[in-house]
Amino acid sequence: MSTLFSLEALDQAREVVGRVMAPTPQYCWPLLRERCGLNVWVKHENHTPTGAFKVRGGLVFMDSLHRQNALPDGFITATRGNHGQSIPFAASRYGVPVTVYVPEGNSAEKNRAMRAWGAELVVYGSDFDEARMECARVAEARGLSFTPSFHPDLVRGVGTYAHELLTGVADLHTVYVPVGMGSGICGLVTVRDLLGLDTRIVGVVSTGAPAYARTFEAGSIVETNEARTFADGVACRVPDPQAAELIRGGVERFVEVPDEQVAEAIRILYTDTHNVAEGAGAIALAALMADIERAGVTRFDGRPVAVIQTGGNIDAPVLAEVLTGKTPRA
Question: In sequence order, what DSSP letters do the residues of 208-234 get, joined into one string?
């Protein structure tokens, strides 16, 4: 059983998050049930103040520092967009400035949103990991407070969505969850274990960014040379060791999904639920549908399943391309 945080600490996080936002909905959509042949619950983390699940972690992370009287004069962090909205969103409540490093070619609309929350943006590197490493170097050189993408308080914060889902839907057989740097899936694993449930958790990555799947299979950290996918929220090359260890002990397996199937899942979420999903927000549904195609629905023993729609922050031109039946180039 994970000991990353306790039920008491989770309850405190729920109170912090609840002061800012209502629980996000989870719906069992009839068209998805018809399409998949079983009850599919969608956890709509696209319905948060920043349009993604990460906001929960930022709120709890900042609250924890505030309680310890340890808020710095400023934060510096790296992101593809949703973490980079969460940190300035939460830090602005305490008047603390945030600098965010993003890679070249990052989502234009996520960049605009980060600036709108008050962040100063610095563009560096060809992908997230290059931006992250430069950000960490600058933080150390200048004595700045570096905020990682994976931290126990961030996990505790995003774990509040897991509590909403796992207490709101009875007898879930499996939850499919996207894996970027690992906070979301680690929150699910921890809360599942704290509640004593037998729900299986399946990690989902892109075939173009399989670092966490390879790490899971190898039992040790496996880095990849590139993370090539338009689902930028899962475009990771270098797994976090603490996240990888918790995943190894609590996740049933991984599913790798190509971008073509991610694009199709975005279209399906739009038509069947009228929700807009970014690539990482649709990849869990893509994995479920791939499993159904390979092995049918009997593997779920007649029980419901859930997919996490982690966010809806997709650039309008990219969404338009997807809705015309195309797959965006990474």
Answer: TB-HHHHHHHHTS----S----S-GGG
d(CA 14, CA 97): 25
Helix/strand/coil for 16: helix
Q: Which string of DSSP letters, residue by residue, matches 276-287?
A: ---HHHHHHHHH
Decide which of 3.55.50.30, 3.30.465.10, 3.40.50.1100, 3.30.70.270 is the CATH code for 7-52+152-323.
3.40.50.1100
Q: Which amino acid is at 84?
A: G
Choose among 43, 24, 33: nearest CA to 308. 43
Q: To 5 degrees, how large is the angle CA 294–CA 295–CA 298?
A: 155
Residue 25: DSSP 8-state: P
The per-residue pLDDT for range 23-73, each reduced to its tens digit, is 999 999 999 999 999 999 999 999 999 999 999 999 999 999 999 999 999
Are 149 and 132 in contact by the 8 Å Cβ rule? The answer is yes
The CATH number of 54-147 is: 3.40.50.1100
The H-or-E segment that residue 40 falls in is: strand 40-44
**Structure pTM?**
0.97
